Amino acid sequence: MAVYTDLSDAELEAFLAAYDLGAPVSFKGIAEGVENSNFVLETAKGRFILTVYERRVREADLPFFLSLMEWLADRGFPSARPIADKSGQRLGRVRDRPAAIISFLPGLSVRRPTPEHCAGAGVGLSGLHQAAEGFPASRPNDLGAASWKRLFKGLEVRAEALRGGLADEVASDLDQLERAWPRQLPSGVVHADWFPDNVFFRSRAFAGAIDFYFAANDLLAYDLAIALNAWCFDDDGGFSTPRARALVDGYERGRPLSAAERAGLPLLAQGAAMRFFLTRLADWGDDRPGALVRPKDPLEFERRLAFHRRAVRAGGGLDGLLAA
To answer: Which residues make Cβ contacts (< 8 Å) with residue 40, sequence separation at least 6?
Structure first.
């Protein structure tokens, strides 16, 4: 979450006039994240999140995201629920941008996850995959494996500026991922951004998830691979085997992995690291005036790419990865 479009009091009041939420009591921007402008909104009827959509989120995709959140909430998964306005619409506009209000989800994200937190994150992710079964809409993952070569095109100079030789390494990795990427594994709706700031806990137990604006249809084990990258590396790039074991064990409490998924997970994790390296590289140097957040360092995921490259070469599937 972040703030790129700050709203005046008059703009907020005009937007809220379409809702039956009462008068605003407080309104504060949320600085975390990189994609949309987000605010904590308190009105006479409670606490909510107001999101103004921008950057990579296409307006045509928003009904998918909002419907998915409602589907999950209806099935008992702890997801925030979109709030409809007086005419029954879940999507409005402010300053010529699409915007929505969703319910406030209680809980806290963690900055330094323990194995216990990772187990809870795994439980939550498998619960999401199970709750999403049967969701009638679908959306291709436009930041999935098929997009990575296209995304890197034009960024070679920027990669080389980060570290000499990096552009050639990335190009080689992309060729390998294209050749070896598994396509016959179980698929379904994935969150695709299962990072600690999007997962909430209460009393160290999983309590809910937010930020479904990358959700799509893709390989379920790829979603777990994203989580391995997000939860199981230290700031210095070191891989935490105890956290990784806990994450996978938590996930398998709800949905055991197939033999093919276990074999393919190191490559999927390499691909997940590539996806976030590339989007960070694309954002690097994109300091928009007035934004309350700075682009994240792509080299953080370049170090993870290097780890996964070694793990894939060593072989051994998930067991080999967890023994690294």
So the answer is: 26, 27, 28, 30, 47, 48, 49, 104
Residue appearing with tokens 């084990």: 221
> Can you read off the two tokens belonging to residue 65?
């995201």
> Could you identify the residue written with the tokens 């894939």?
312
Beta strands 37-43 and 46-52, pairing class: antiparallel
Contact in structure between 184 and 260 (CB atoms under 8 Å): yes
pLDDT confidence of 284, banded at 50, 70, 90?
confident
- Tell me the C-alpha distance between 187 and 268, whole Å: 13
Strand order from edge to edge, sheet including 92-94: 24-29, 37-43, 46-52, 97-103, 92-94
Does the predicted TM-score (pTM) go above 0.90?
A: yes
Q: What is the pLDDT of residues 162-220, one digit of tens each?
A: 999 999 999 999 999 999 999 899 999 999 999 999 999 998 899 999 999 999 999 99
Query: Can you list the positions of beta strands (E) in 178-269?
Result: 187-190, 199-202, 205-209, 216-219
